[in-house]
Amino acid sequence: MLNGVDMRILDPDSSTEGLDSNMVIHKILNSLNIPLSVETVCVFTAPIFSAFASWATYLLTKEVKGAGAGLTAAALLAMVPSYISRSVAGSYDNEAVAIFALIFTFYLYIKTLNTGSLFYATLNAIAYFYMVCSWGGYTFIINLIPMHVLLCIVTGRYSSRLYIAYAPLVVLGTLLASLVPVVGFNAVMTSEHFASFLVFIIIHVVALVYYIKGILTPQMFKVAVTLVVSVGLIVCAAVLAVLIALVASSPTKGWSGRSLSLLDPTYASKYIPIIASVSEHQPPTWPSYFMDINVLAFLVPAGIIACFLPLSDASSFAVLYIVTSVYFSGVMVRLMLVLAPAACIMSGIALSEAFDVFTRSIKFQLFGATQDPQVNAGDTSNVAQNDVVKPEKSEDSLKERSSRKSKKKEKENVETVPLVSRIEKRLLVLPLEASLIAIFLLVLLGAFYVVHCVWAAAEAYSAPSIVLTSRSHDGLHVFDDFREAYAWLRHNTDVDDKVASWWDYGYQTTAMANRTVIVDNNTWNNTHIATVGTAMSSPEKAAWEIFNLLDVKYVFSCVWSDDINKFLWMVRIGGGVFPHIKEPDYLRDGQYRIDSQATPTMLNCLMYKLSYYRFVETDGRGFDRVRHTEIGKKYFKLTHFEEVFTTHHWMVRIYKLKSPRNRIRGKTKKSKTKSTSTSSSRRSGARKKNPWH
Predict the structure, then answer these.
(1) How many C-beta neighbours within 10 Å does residue 480 have?
(2) DSSP H helical segments within 216-272, as ranges?
(3) Distance of CA 31 to the CA centre of its chain
(4) Which of 106, 63, 177, 170 is nearest to 338 (CA)?
(5) What's the pTM?
(6) In angstroms, rounded to a whole number, what is the distance separating the alpha carbons of residues 634 and 622?
(7) Which residues make Cβ contacts (< 8 Å) with residue 459, sequence separation at least 6?
(8) Which has the higher per-residue pLDDT, 8 or 413?
(9) In CA terms, which of 91, 635, 651, 692 is 20 to 30 Å from 181?
(10) For the residues 509-519, what does the mean pLDDT come to?
(11) Paired sense of beta strands 641-646 and 652-657, if any
């Protein structure tokens, strides 16, 4: 799909992709005397890192629910279409590397949370630094982890392990992130990072309260808590005042356009239409979920329920991860990529727990019918005894120091929860027939998932986007019009000729036609893109004047697949800079039409004329098969542009600007009686006139 290719780099806030991991890998391999070209490294980097992502998913899910769930989640991620779209061989995209860094950072955080190891905490900060170097989506990590820490504190699950998992990440991770050139002081100056600093203060206040509670008597503790809370409120107020002073001068209050687009789905369409115009930045439809994650969408709720049986710090993080990723994927279809690992983790947990129950039931019905009831009875009695003994232990521990009590309590929780959960599982036994049918259905569901993933990888994500295909009753049809058009430009135009088109054809025109373009996928200047949008939205004469000022020789237009569909975005982007372009002028009663009911402004704009010039000659009536309607204006002539090339299937059309001397010479023939001085003054006035006002 051409629309949306690499448009993310138009957002300066998301441009942390400056550190090219492919070049780093190339230099490392060559230093080891492994002679691989840069092209080979670029082709195979994404598949290799997708394998690493599956491994990281196994490690993360294993920390949450065990090795069985980890293996299942890793297998699901290895095939999920949403991730395959970014990790196929030849996919030169940093997001394949970034997803591995994202999952691995989460794994190290959970590992530190479960073990309390400062070694894993340091590795977690380094993994976060690697994520910052890879992708601008690192802000998801630095906001999700503070949310989980705050959730643990609010629900009374604070522990020293939580402090060790979070505090080094904020300090060391922020210092390392500030070393990345494109991030720099944004790591401490933008609103996306303020949540981590606020939670950093809160966790230190909570840690201080727990420490004071362990060394003071209850009476002194109340006085100390009052003092600590008062000082804490003063410090928080001072920090908030500083933050407010820092962001008050910004019209967006310190938030980047990307973050505001995620928090407010309507923000981009209102204020940054150039970002909203990208197809990847549109909200997804329900078929998109089924296409990208398939049956995982139905297994995720079961996985969320399994995470609460029992609930731990790791499983609560997994639940928070899936909830936030579902929201963000609903805002922007591109973020389905972030949802895919979370959906695989939850589905892996659900399938693992289901297989565990069903296989255990079959074993019980076939082999353990005489022994397991006694064992279960003994287990239940042990549970009852444990429930009775626990209060006695807790009463005795009140006489000990509070610090020892908290450590002992944490150890008891870690040891008793798995025992109780194992006993509860053994108590759940289903009939033999129901277990066999359920396993068969789960295997059938997995087979359907595999078939869908293979089909999606072969049909949707393996074909080159520049060559379009379609199937009908008479076989496969290949539309190679784009390469045909680029080849014509390369062989029939001068090297220094400039080509005007919409921005998403820029990279391809530069690479395949070797011609200079006015705007491309890396154009950060919104006014520059708005100028091209204004030219496409203007009448033919005004558009010619704009392109002439830009020294354009040829105009590239895609007819059936893209340009007419996204024309309203050209109008919106152009109107955002040049107010005389108004979207309602191109709509009939609020509807976008190209038939006989289209508005005169629409029928006379350059984009309409370039798309449908001589279009009636294709079938005699000008029927647009893509939009299933007849065009409104069928017979017209071009006065300022001339058609020089149209591809075989009429998908791409190339026009050349007529020479101004030819047009002026034609006018002088009609007005021979006028003086030479008068005509020359008019020509000079026409050249000086600004066509944009």
Answers:
(1) 16
(2) 218-247, 257-263, 267-271
(3) 34
(4) 106
(5) 0.77
(6) 7
(7) none
(8) 413
(9) 91
(10) 89
(11) antiparallel
